[in-house]
Write a structure and sequence with these properties.
14 helices, five-stranded antiparallel sheet, Uridine Diphospho-n-acetylenolpyruvylglucosamine Reductase, domain 3, alpha+beta
Length: 375
């Protein structure tokens, strides 16, 4: 089912007799038990005010269309949403609704914030088929909730997004990336922490064999900060080179989309953790293929197929998400990390209010059956 507007979507949800599998562009390789329901038919930029740095778009609008419109005004989505297709092997087109629904945020999150931090408003249809919008009609069962925060990261389990409004930012004049070679994972995390704690406004900090530190802004400023940051990191004893703007942009697209694992076999996990814990967790996982982003607070690991990484890691301060695996492995291990009992009770309470019939992406985030291989 692919409704073409909000009213059609509301009618479909009201009339649904069983679970619905909500999809945006279908690029993340997720498939939840239920009848497929796509937002791809609801497309178009409905408002763009470059001077106010704001845009409003229907949820099914391709991210590429939004980026093209922004580029004409030298603006961008500062949270640089990941394109999962290289990693997941999925077809489809990334959509702005999917990016907001899953709170997809790239390397620049450490400097400017996540997708939810740029989202100004939402319109969505809840599990009862009611149309809800931010700042307009406030229904009794949603009074007091921050709808933007609730919907950003809920992955369609509380409602189906139909329209989003968000902030955009100007594109900097240039960028450059310092590349530190020869550092261990532990020293790389230390160097990234030092860089982020400096006054030189680092907008990306990753370690993928080499340690990468991105600087953006006016050319004179970037040149000065690159040299100053280089001097500040000399104690780590690494060979340091500086990438120019074009090479830097290309390298960070690869970090954003985790293309280093695209052609590697094995399951891919995404770990969110304390940066200082990252090297030990990666070692405990036994994964030779690993990528540290967000200065070590986000780790991508490629491990043998069927590995129960959560069991191997044991308790740690963070969570592990299974991003790429066979349907059987996703069914057995679940995509999302189990919620703590208190959080689980709160989550269930929200689902009871927004989706009392339990039909929206059931089980995807702990609310019931997740069955990637069942339709």
């Amino acid at each position: 089912m692919t409704p073409q507007n909000e009213e059609e979507l509301a009618a479909i949800i009201r009339d649904a007799k069983g679970p619905l599998s909500i999809r945006g562009g279908g690029t993340r390789g997720l498939s939840v038990f239920g009848e497929p329901l796509s937002t791809a038919g609801m497309t178009g930029i409905t408002l763009y005010e470059p001077g106010a740095l704001t845009m409003v778009a229907q949820a099914g609008t391709p991210v590429a269309q939004i980026e093209a419109a922004l580029a004409e005004k030298n603006q961008r989505l500062a949270f640089e949403p990941m394109d999962h297709r290289a990693l997941s092997g999925a077809d489809g087109t990334p959509t702005i609704g999917g990016a907001i629904a899953a709170n997809i945020s790239g390397p620049r999150r450490i400097a400017v914030g996540a997708a939810r931090d740029f989202t100004l408003g939402v319109r969505f249809v809840d599990g009862s088929g009611e149309i809800i919008k931010n700042g307009g009609r406030v229904m009794k069962n949603v009074t007091g909730y921050d709808l933007v925060k609730l919907m950003s990261g809920a992955c369609g389990t509380l409602g189906v997004l139909t329209e989003v409004s968000f902030k955009v930012l100007p594109v900097p004049e240039t960028q450059a990336t310092l590349v530190l070679r020869g550092l261990t994972d532990t020293d790389a995390v230390r160097a990234m922490a030092r860089a982020l704690g400096s006054p030189f406004e680092v907008t990306g900090a990753a370690h993928d064999g080499e340690t990468l530190l991105r600087l953006e802004g006016f050319e004179a400023s970037v040149t000065y900060r690159a040299q100053a940051l280089r001097d500040a990191l000399v104690e780590f004893g690494a060979e340091i080179i500086v990438m120019d703007a074009e090479e830097s942009a290309d390298r960070w697209r690869g970090i954003r989309d985790v293309t280093t694992f695209a052609d590697q076999s094995g399951d891919v996990w995404r770990l969110s953790c304390k940066p200082s814990d990252g090297p030990a967790l990666a070692k405990r996982a036994g994964a030779e293929a690993r990528l540290f982003d967000w200065a070590g607070g986000l780790i991508w690991l490629c491990v043998p197929e069927g590995t129960d990484l959560r069991a191997d890691l044991g308790e740690f301060d963070g969570h592990a998400t299974l991003v790429r695996a066979s349907p059987e492995t996703k069914r057995r291990l679940n995509v999302f990390h189990p919620e703590a009992p208190g959080v689980a009770r709160l989550s269930q309470g929200l689902r009871d209010r927004f989706d009392p019939r339990g039909i929206l992406n059931p089980g995807l985030m702990g609310g019931g059956r997740y069955a990637d291989d069942i339709h």
